[in-house]
Each structure stands twice: as structure tokens, then as C-alpha cells.
Amino acid sequence: MVLLVTSDNEQFQTEKDIVERSVLIKNMLEDVGESDQPIPLPNVSSSVLKKVTQPSTGPTEIDVRGRYLSTASTTVESPSRPPILEQSQDETRKRTTDISEWDQKFITVDQEMLFEIILAANYLDIKSLLCRRWLQDGSQHDQGARPPEEIRKLFNIVNDFTPEEEAQIKKENEWAEDR
Amino acid sequence: MSSREQVPDEVWSEIFCLLPRDNLEALSLTSSNFKDISRPLLFAHFKFHPYAFHGRQTDIVLLPSEAEITSSLNRLDFWASDGIARHVRSCQIIPWQAGRSELLFTEATTQSRYILLESFFQRLELFTGLQHFHGDGIHFTQAAVTTLCHALALTKVLLIQCSIADGEHIDPMSLQLGVSSFSFINGVTHDDGIGLWIPLLRPQHLRELHLTCHPRFFGEDLAAIPRFPHVHTLTVTANYSTMSYNLAVLSKFPAVQIFMMRGWGLVQDGAGAPVNASTVLPVIQRYTCGCETMGLFLHRRTLTHLTVQHCNPRDFTEQLRGTNNSITSFDITFDGFDMSVLRGICDFFPMLTELRIRSECEVEEDDGEHINDIATTFFTELEDFTAFQATLQRLAIIWRFEYIDQDESDEAYSHEVEIPKLNELRDVLVERCPGLTTLWLDGDDFLFHWRKSSQGADEEYSTVDEDDAKTRRKTLNDFWAA
Fold first, then answer.
1. Deepest of B63, B175, B290, B336, by most Cβ within 10 A of its Cβ?
2. What is the extent of the structural domain holding B34?
3. pLDDT confidence tier of residue B412, bands split at 50, 70 and 90
């Protein structure tokens, strides 16, 4: 177990293999060696750290490699772990659109928390695992991308394009692709 | 209080890096800020088709309709425009495949055939951040080579089946290609212009060189070949019967650590005598070769990784004399093998920590059911095999069978084969090799893999379903590399 101390001085006992998914914490643990010294996280509040490390409730699906799967195949009871910390970066690149119950709960956090989590994930160096899932929505869009309008809503973005500009960008994006 | 503005653009950019293309396109449409962040990613890789070929028939150049040519030129101009060109990091210039493309092609006239290709090279200098250039089936002129040499950020060039136009003058005195990686892949039986490219390379810059092309790649005059003191990775295709020449060329690469040699012919010097490679590639660490040339570096003390491609087990075992105490990783593909060959490997390489054996054999099919007892017998016997070194950490044994029509006079294989319990075999192997962490056992119709975890539950997979095994087999390289 590893003792983490947040910016608001709360202490969290967390399993080592979970927190080591954060490159920052992994490096810190390597620096302090085998000591029980607490790991300070001055840029992460307790409410955010809870979101990043809290276990999901209920059965989670785990594949044979002990990694998280959100597609229904073989369901087994497993230690509850947040999927965010379960996947390697490579897997995240490969897997495109699974949105788990855990993620969906996550998506429903308010906007302020969303940005705080992004910043914390950046600080902890696990951002790749977090943000990808928010931007995609396989469950509603047949494994495609979230439409621009939804992304605007999610991140409170003001559309500063004229319809002509938007049409022009669409055309240019088509040119980006192999033809 | 956090807001979108508090998340710096660099963080968004790193997040965007991980998103698939369709997400980036959606993000670019949300706001001008997100458009600016997504553009360098959307326009980092430029793929362009300058003409079409029918398959590999490269002597007839085809072009699409006038309208399509105009559209391609408009697209090229957009990519070469001020706001976009600087984002381009790699270019792939590759002909359309006539027949596979939806476009209609007709044979181009001599005057027009290179209109798109020339237009591309005229704009290449605008891609100021270009790092990688990949040309496939490209017809180079002096002007095109010159433009490529002037691309200052370029570090990697890959040319596949490319040619240089007859009569073009490429002057190595005034032109230099300062890349760190150069790959040239072409036919090995005809002159392909590699002799014009090699003098352009700057020996002080080059780190990786891959040549799959005409074997006399450096010309006849050995004294004229420069030394490449920093090349650490080298691939060559060679005629083994001129091995003295090949080794003289290799002596110009004293820093090579990773070496791959493919080729053909009997291993001889030019006059038919045996060859001695004792002074070339003095720091070689990893060697990939055919069985014929395995002996060239087999006893080099620096060599730790050996990969032997397709080999007859008898030819292989004939080369094993004494022991090799330096090689820790061995990978070989046989056309069939047995316990005695495995024992020979374990005796010859006592320091092995990593062993991967693939056996590809043809067997006669009895009635289309595709099953035989070769792999099952092998794995059953493996339980009693005691020659593995205790130091072994990673083991893969892969059987692949190709079923050919049954000759009526031959005995058919029985269907009644019992698949051994490979998890029990794993337990036996772990007892003999306590350091074992990774196991991949593939019997073609069944498959088992296991990886020891330092963090709790081991990773294990097992199937006796042929289709499941087929799907899972595709993950071998990732599994093995992890």
C-alpha cells in the first residue's frame, strides 16, 4: 500500500499497483525506495483523487490478463478497480470506444470537476486514459466520434465559427484524408 | 475553480494526440481554439498519389480523369499552403492501385505522365518540418533528388521500388542527403539505381541502413566506399557466393550492433574458398540470417541475440559444435523439428534466457478435418524433457501445419488425438526453470499462453478451438514484445 497526501491534506491508502499507473507517482516511489514515506500530491485535491482512484461498484468485467473490459463477454467477480488505472496506454490507443458504467458515471461529473480531473490527470501523467473516454461516445454514436455540438456542451465551448467557416473546415478536413 | 481556459493548450494537444482521426475532425469544428490545436495532428501525414499502376507493372503509367487531376492539384496546393505545410511531418508518395481505386485510369501520354509527381516535388520545399519521406514506385529526376536533399529536417527516407530516370545526372559532390535512416527496397536481380543514392548519404549522419536490392550495392571499387562509423543497424541482401566482397563492404560498418543478412547462393568467397568473417562487425550483438550464413558470426563473443530464418533441422544441427556461452536469445524457424533438435539447441546455448522455435511442416490431410498428432505428441513428450537450462525465462514453441492432399498409399493421421493439458505442462516447466515468466505453446489447433505477473494474478489463456487460436495467434508479436 502507498500513502498519498492531497493538496487539502487528506491521506489515502492506495494499492501500489493501482497508483503506479501514474507515471508521476511511479517515479516518486522509485525515488523514495522501499520507505513508507507519504507521497505528497500538492496539485490534486482529495475530491479529485477520489474520482481518479475510487473503485467502481458492482461486478467489473476483467479479461484473462486481468485487465478491464467493458464489452460483455465473460463476467467474473473481480477486485474493483477503476478502469482508468487498469489499461496501458497502448491498449487505450487500440481500443476506441468502450464506455463503461464507470466512465458514464464519470462523464456526469460537473464541468468544474471535469476540468479539475483533466488537470490532475495531466499532473499525474495518466491523462491519456481519462480524456479519451470523455471525448468519445461509442454507446450513442455507433462507435463514431462525439458530434461537435456535444463536445461544445461538454466543455462549455462557444462556437466562434460562421456557417461558411464551418463548411470550409469540413471541406479542408476531407482534403486531409487519403484520397 | 477550474475552467476550460485553465487547461493549457499543450495538455489538450497531448490528449488530442491519442484520439482517432474522426474525433479530431469533430474537435476541429467546435471552435477556432480547438481547430488550431487539432490542425497539426490532422495535417501531420500527407499521402499523395502521383499516378497509377496496374499491380507492379510499372512501365505503363496511368492517370485519372482531367477533373480528378485538377482536384488532386487543388488538394496538393492546400497542403502546401502557408497554414498547413509547416505541420507536415511525413509524406508518403505512392501510386494508386488501378483496379482497387474507385477512379478510372487511362494510359498517360509521355508529356503528361509526371504532371502530379513533378507538382509535388515543386512544392516539397514548403514542407519545412518534413522528417520522414516514403516513396513507393517513384520515378526520380535530378530535380526531385535535389529537392529531397534540400529538405533540411528530413531524418528518414524509405524508397520502395523507386527508380532514377535514365540519363539524369546526380552529383554527389554538390548534393548530400543528411538523413539518419535510409531504406532502399527493390528487386535484387536488376540494376536499380542504388549506386546513385549511396554516394549521397553522409557517413557522419547515418545510423540505420536497410538495403534490399541489387547485391553489388556499393559498386566494384571497394576502396571508393566510405566508412560509415555510426551505423548501428544494417540490413543487406547479398549473393553469398561473393562473400569476400560482401565482407569487405561490411568492414566499412564497424559500429553495427544489429545486422540482418538475406541472400542466395553457396557461401564462398569469389574463388570458391571458405570465408572468414572474424574481423568484420566487431561489436555485433543481434544477428538475423539464414541457416547458410549462421556460422559467420555464431561464435562472436559480442553476439547475444540470434534469429535464424527458415532452416532445415539437419543443416542446422550440423553447425552446432561445442557450446556458445554468449547468446541469451535464440529464435529459429524450422521446417519440422523434434526433441533431439531441441536438446541440441539447449546443449549448445547453455546461457539461453529466451527461446522461440517455430516449426512449419507439410502433412498429408486424411479427409479435410485438419488435425494430426505431431504437436500433441511433442507437447506430451515435453513434460519429460529435462534439458532446458534453469535460466530460461521466456519460451515459445509454435507448430504450423500445411495440409496437402493425401497420397492414398500413405497412412493417414488419426483424428483421435488428445490435447495435452498445457497448464499442467506449464507447472512442470516452471518447476524446472524457476525463472520462467513467459510461455507461448501453439499446436496449430490449440493454443496456450501464460505470463507471470509480479502484481498478483498471472495472465493465462487457453483454447482448443481452431478459430479462437487463429485469432489469438495474431497477438503473438505484441505478447512477446511486452
1. B63
2. 9-42
3. low
